[in-house]
Amino acid sequence: MRAAFAAAAAGAGAFPDEDELLPARSGCTIEDHVIAGNVEEFRKDFISRIWLTYREEFPQIEGSALTTDCGWGCTLRTGQMLLAQGLILHFLGRAWTWPDALNIENSDSESWTSNTVKKFTASFEASLSGERELKTPTISLKEKIERYSDDREMQNEIYHRKIISWFGDSPLALFGLHQLIEYGKKSGKKAGDWYGPAVVAHILRKAVEEARHPDLKGITIYVAQDCTVYSSDVIDKQCTSMASDNTNDKAVIILVPVRLGGERTNADYLDFVKGILSLEYCVGIIGGKPKQSYYFAGFQDDSLIYMDPHYCQSFVDVSIKDFPLETFHCPSPKKMSFRKMDPSCTIGFYCRNVQDFKRASEEITKMLKISSKEKYPLFTFVNGHSRDYDFTSTTTSEEDLFSEDEKKRIKRFSTEEFVLL
């Protein structure tokens, strides 16, 4: 799977309407590979990304009567999509695409959209009578893969399904809504609340840190502190192994909460955002319009290409063998003018190892310097640890998943208060 893609303007014409589906006839570029007029390649790449939307009739969320997140869970869903993209890169690589992607591309998108959008209204009815639980496999996914060592496509499909199952709407799903809400409680959030992109970044970090699955030992998440990435802190996380016999450094997903302006997004940041989305390391942006979150994955001219979580689909039990995949893949990309973007967002990057992180930090730093018209860039990479700059180091324990320092930072971000230089 490619890290990001951009739909070029050549041959696409002008499309003044906002939030519309991308046209069927447009030139597309994916990273630096130009696909002149080949919309199928673009759509296959887009549809292969994991799409996570509102769901209804899932097992009741503990401590509430809610069996749906319709109307309030969109930022959690866009955070899930960003994490899912990072896991796709980690396990399947940037070149992977879902073989069945174009089989759902030909569906009537207008009919499909009208049917799903009718389910927007949140359901507050009692929970399902039958309790559904996600049965976590007792053996490592890598052990399962060995049975299909002669069939690469089968190996990839096992990982594909496994990644989706980690985001199932069940209390036992590692990165499912139920688990994310539990971590959110540590920062004062509860089911039914609206979550900002910075709060979701910290929730995702906790979810990955606490995941006790053998296949996830090789990946971690780092969240930038006050728009600063401390390189030594990142490398320390990458080199801390959960297994004493494992000396390999970990992959890392770096999440950077930023603000692209004051009350409205500053148009001067457009080229920077387009540049970031063009980097091979980028796994997308948790953003959107005010109080409406989207997962931004690319751009076309001055518009952003996104995946929309605001479709209330029915619960899918991912513990069932060969559960249907179609509702986890978006059949049509949408675009939105950059000027309508909410300034508060979280940018994500994936680095496979320490050397990859060092290369990424150099490339991103160059882009930050080029795009920064003022003295101060949007965020920075600095050498050393956060403690070297008189910041309290963040520590966690089983009793308190968020340290006091983290709680203060999350509370500040949750009110969307940023210092603008």
What are the key terms here?
421 residues; alpha/beta; nine-stranded mixed sheet; two-stranded antiparallel ribbon; 15 strands; globular
Describe this structure in words.
The protein has 421 residues and is α/β, with parallel strands linked by helices. The protein has helices at residues 39-48, 74-92, 101-105, 109-117, 141-145, 152-166, 177-185, 197-210, 231-239, 270-278, 354-371, 404-414, and strands at 5-7, 20-21, 28-30, 33-35, 55-56, 219-223, 228-230, 251-259, 282-289, 292-300, 303-307, 313-314, 334-337, 344-351, 380-382. Helix 8 (197-210) packs antiparallel against helix 12 and helix 9 (231-239) runs antiparallel to helix 11 (354-371). It is globular.
Provide a short characterization of the protein structure.
The protein is α/β, with parallel strands linked by helices and 421 residues long.
Topology:
Layout: E1 5-7, E2 20-21, E3 28-30, E4 33-35, H1 39-48, E5 55-56, H2 74-92, H3 101-105, H4 109-117, H5 141-145, H6 152-166, H7 177-185, H8 197-210, E6 219-223, E7 228-230, H9 231-239, E8 251-259, H10 270-278, E9 282-289, E10 292-300, E11 303-307, E12 313-314, E13 334-337, E14 344-351, H11 354-371, E15 380-382, H12 404-414
Parallel strand pairs: 1-10, 5-12, 6-8, 7-15
Antiparallel strand pairs: 2-13, 3-4, 8-14, 9-10, 9-14, 10-11, 11-13
